[in-house]
Amino acid sequence: MSNKNLGSCLCEKVKFEIEGDFESFFLCHCKYCQKDTGSAHGANLFTVNAKFTWLTGTDLVKTFHLPNTRHVKSFCSNCGSALPSVQGEEKLIVVPAGSLDTPVNLKPNAHLFMSSRATWEENLQLLPSFDKLPEL
């Protein structure tokens, strides 16, 4: 039986399904991923073998391809959430891990582009942790 993953954007107007397994999961620290996530890194799952289907909201999906690079970002034009993109002739499906509604059972394979990581991204595991927003 094939693995089925469901996902959506924050406003839930765009929904998608991926049937099949992911081949890899990378945390990318390149400057492009920092810019398009607004965070320290992108967390993306990759597959060339799964079947990808938009279920709702296809008309809201916008895709930006950074000129002269392989960097592509798809997003919901209503809420701005990152969404999957299908790239290149090999039909590489790149899925932002946070866009999935089903649990991700795969652990990241590796950190990429560590030479570009944010200067504040060191020893983060040493910071205090909270289950919710702390009292200010």
Instruction: Write down the overall geometry.
Output: globular
Fraction of residues in β-strands:
35-45%
The radius of gyration over CA amounts to: 16 Å
- Runs with pLDDT <50, length 5+? none
**What is the CATH first-level class name?**
Mainly Beta
Discrete helix count: 1
How many distinct beta strands?
A: 11
What is CATH's topology name? Metal Binding Protein, Guanine Nucleotide Exchange Factor, Chain A
Structural class: mainly beta
Which strand order does the major sheet show? 9-10-4-3-11
The amount of helix comes to: under 10%
User: How many individual domains?
Assistant: 1
Which second-level CATH architecture applies? Beta Complex
Most strands sheet: 5 strands, mixed
Beginning-to-end CA distance, first to last residue: 49 Å
Series of secondary-structure elements, N-terminal to C-terminal: EEEHEEEEEEEE
The overall pLDDT, averaged over residues, is: 92
Describe it.
This protein is mainly beta and 136 residues long. It has a single domain (4-116), classed as Metal Binding Protein, Guanine Nucleotide Exchange Factor, Chain A, CATH 2.170.150.70. The protein has one helix and eleven strands. It has one helix at residues 31-37; strands spanning 4-8, 15-19, 24-28, 42-47, 51-56, 61-65, 72-76, 82-83, 85-87, 92-96, 110-112. The strands form three sheets. The chain has a five-stranded mixed beta sheet with strand order 9-10-4-3-11. The longest helix is centred in the first third of the chain and has 7 residues, at 31-37. The model has no long low-confidence stretch (mean pLDDT 92).
